[in-house]
Amino acid sequence: MCFGCFSCSCMRPRYKRLVDNIFPPIPQDGLVKNNMVKLTFYSLSSPEKLDRIGEYLYQRACRDLSRKRTGFVVIAMEAMDQLLVACHAQTLNLFVESFLRIVQKLLESTEPELQILATQSFVKFANIEEDTPSYHRRYDFFVSKFSSMCHSNHSELAVRDSIRLAGIKGLQGVIRKTVSDDLVENIWKAQHMDKIVPSLLYNMQDSRYLEKEANSPEPEEEKNSPPSLAETCIRELVGRASFGHVRCVLKPVLKHLDHHDLW
């Protein structure tokens, strides 16, 4: 019996064995760092295996997610993050597809913790400059999901603010990624701007933010508040807009002012 199990283990592809080894017996122990180093080295040495590694990690994460084994899902996401940062190759595009599928899966979860985790991973991805742009990649789902997170009405104030902050950071990541990926035209479409701009303005309407005196110093906690971050994000959005795209931002702003009687 033991010999049979040993044989099956040996017959498994090496990349699968390396991936399996980064997971501890219990999730509380966290990512097995020594084995993660081995997996990263293998990925750098054999970049053609990146897509298979990504797909296998995605399958494991989906299985653990369906079984409510959140700890192992977090470990899978952490491994994906590390591989994404470490591996710079032409095959990275194939790995990114699996990465974004995991992020999407976690964003679709009803657990705020997983939604925030997925957003953090997406932001890390958005800050990576890829060697070759991916013109076929679409961010429609992420624009819609992050925009909806900006409107979170969770019963707990702290959780609500955390989800809204994550949503704003996610939108900021989408904006940065689409610009750096030469997909600028895509983000300026009305279908995206009509979600992004109102979501940011909605958070800027916070009463505490509006009542603050113009010359009063901004407390540290306010700098990390949804209203403050939303303002930073919309400033960045306008700053990245060319002369021809400014109208794409202004139109949803005017619509928002009309709908909420903010004139």
Task: Tell me what you see in this structure.
The protein has helices at residues 2-11, 14-21, 33-45, 50-66, 70-86, 92-107, 112-126, 140-150, 157-180, 184-187, 190-204, 207-211, 220-223, 226-240, 246-259. By secondary structure, the protein is mostly helical. It folds into two domains: 12-130; 139-206 and 223-262, no CATH class. Helix 2 runs antiparallel to helix 3 (33-45) and helix 11 crosses helix 15 (246-259). The protein is globular and about 70 Å long.
Helix/sheet category: mainly alpha
Record field, number of beta strands: 0
- Count of folded domains: 2
Q: What summary fits the major beta sheet?
A: none
Shape, per Cα inertia axes: globular
What letter string, H or E per element, gives the SSE order? Answer: HHHHHHHHHHHHHHH
What portion of the residues fall into strands of 2 or more residues?
under 5%
**How far apart are the first and last residues' alpha carbons, in Å?**
77 Å
Rg (CA only): 21 Å
InterPro entries: ARM-type_fold (IPR016024), EFR3-like_ARM (IPR049152), EFR3_Homologs (IPR051851)
GO cellular component, one term: plasma membrane
Family: Belongs to the EFR3 family.
Features:
single chain; 263 residues; mainly alpha; 2 domains; 15 helices; 71% helix
Task: Explain the layout of strands and helices.
Blueprint: H1 2-11, H2 14-21, H3 33-45, H4 50-66, H5 70-86, H6 92-107, H7 112-126, H8 140-150, H9 157-180, H10 184-187, H11 190-204, H12 207-211, H13 220-223, H14 226-240, H15 246-259
Helix pairs in contact: 2-3, 3-5, 4-5, 4-6, 5-6, 5-7, 6-7, 7-9, 8-9, 8-11, 9-14, 11-14, 11-15
